[in-house]
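dude i think i finally got it to work??
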Amino acid sequence: MNESLAPYLSSFFILFREGFEALLIAILVFTYLDKVNARHQRPAVMWGLVAGVVASLILALAVKQIAAVTHAHEEIFEGSVMLIASAMLAYVAYFSHNAKKHVEGEVDKAVATGNPIFLSLTVFFAIIREGFEIVLFYAALFTSTIYSTVPVIAGAATGTFALIFVYLGLKKITKVLPIGVFFRVSSILLLMLSIYFGYEGTKELYAGLRELKII
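look at this
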């Protein structure tokens, strides 16, 4: 029982945890565009999301094929991407904080002109980091001779269904939230994610550089 339970729980939690972070960022970004009446700019952000998924798959699979790439190199890559995502999330949190004034007409609409591309890149870097880790994790689980693939697949399926329910719940909540409350809450959440990404990115980058004896 334990032999099946361990890979199932590992599969479920890695997909749910990493997927939740990416899902939360994507929902906040898309809702932000809705609130500032910029739905026509959603395709730009959607391209960032799709590009992040594709790039994470290609990068992770490429890393698994290159024998010279060590765990330290993976940590350096993930740490670097997390630091970039951290900076972008902080920037988006700033815009979200000031978006209520923009919606109320106190700030010229030109303030948000460059946001779609930047938001697209924010989603891209958030997705590519989470996706990269998920692909590497599942590649390790599926190639392991210890675990059966059935509990791994079951855990992934359960995690996916859990994320769908979370998505529907978050989407409903963000729709009914008053504009002012949404922007205050989203700016705080994005700032918290920025701090978390910055901390984890610094830790992984440091660990990778130390493992390679660069520092």
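Confidence is low (pLDDT under 50) at residues 103-113.
im so relieved honestly
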